[in-house]
Amino acid sequence: MHVKKKNYLNLKIKIMRFIVFFFVLSLCTTRTTVYARGDTTRQYLFNSNLSNGYKLVYKHNDSLQYLFLSKGKMLKLLSTEEIYNKQSLLGFVTADFDDYFVLVHTLHVVNIYDPIMFDLFEKKTASIVLKGFYLDAKNNMLLYHNNDSMKLYNVISHDTETFAFPMQDSGSTWLVNKIAIKSITTGTLTVTFYDDRDAFDGGRQKIKSYKR
Q1: What is the pLDDT of the chain when averaged over all its residues?
Q2: Which residue has the higher pLDDT, 12 or 63?
Q3: What angle (nearest 5°) sits at the alpha carbon of residue 134, between those of residues 133 and 136?
Q4: CA distance 151 to 184
Q5: Long-range contacts of residues 79-84, Cβ cutoff 8 Å, at least 24 apart
Q6: What does the pLDDT look like over 39-94, one tens digit per residue?
Q7: Phi, psi of 63 (to 5 degrees)
Q8: Is the pLDDT of residue 185 over 90?
Q9: What would the pLDDT profile of 105-140 be if each residue is shown by its tens digit?
Q10: How far apart are CA 57 and CA 68, in angstroms?
Q11: Terminus-to-terminus CA distance in the chain, angstroms?
Q12: Which end of the chain lies in a sparser environment, N or C, as judged by fewer CB atoms within 10 Å?
C-alpha cells in the first residue's frame, strides 16, 4: 500500500512538471508570435506615410526597436536602435520624393546642437544611396553638408554641386543647422541663415544667393 502511494505521488509530480513545461513553452511561443505580428504597445511618434503607397512600420521587443519600409508584401528593415533610445535616433522622414526619401537620425527634434545625420533611401530597394548631415530639401533637391561645405544633390539626375557655407562661423553646428533653402532655380540657389545666436534671437535672418 505504501509503495502504491509513493508511485502515485511520483506520477503526480511528473504530471505537474509536464504541465509547467508546456505552460512556459506556450508563453515563449506567444511572445514570438506577438513580435512577428508587430508589438503595438509603443507607437511610432512621427509621420509614417510616404508617397506612391509606401509607409514606415515600427516594431519593437524588450531590447530593440525597428523601422521598416513597407508596400504591399514588401517589408524591409531601415534602422535599429536600443529600446531605451529616443525614436528620433531610429529615424524620421524630413523629405519625401517620388522615388526616394530622407530619413534623419538625431537626438533632439528642435533646437538641434548636434549634426543631423541622414540616409537617402531608394524606395523600391530600401537601399541607402547617400549619407551626410541634413540641412533642407526642396523641388527634388537635397541640401546637406559634410562639415567642410554644403552639397546640393539632385535626386533625379544624381548630380551634386558644392557651395561654401554662407556664414563665417561654420564651426557652429547650431548655426549650420539653421541654414534653409529659400528658392532654387536652374541658375541660382538662395538660402537663409543667421550669423550668430544674437541674430537668431533678434530675428535678423540673412539671405545669400549662389550661382549654379
Answers
A1: 84
A2: 63
A3: 155
A4: 13
A5: 79/103, 79/105, 79/119
A6: 445 789 999 999 999 999 999 999 999 999 999 999 999 999 999 999 999 999 99
A7: -120, -25
A8: yes
A9: 988 776 677 889 999 999 999 999 999 999 999 999
A10: 5
A11: 101
A12: N
Closest CA relative to residue 120, chosen from 110, 111, 131: 131
Backbone angles phi, psi at 66, to 5 degrees: -130, 150
* Overall size of the chain counted in residues: 212
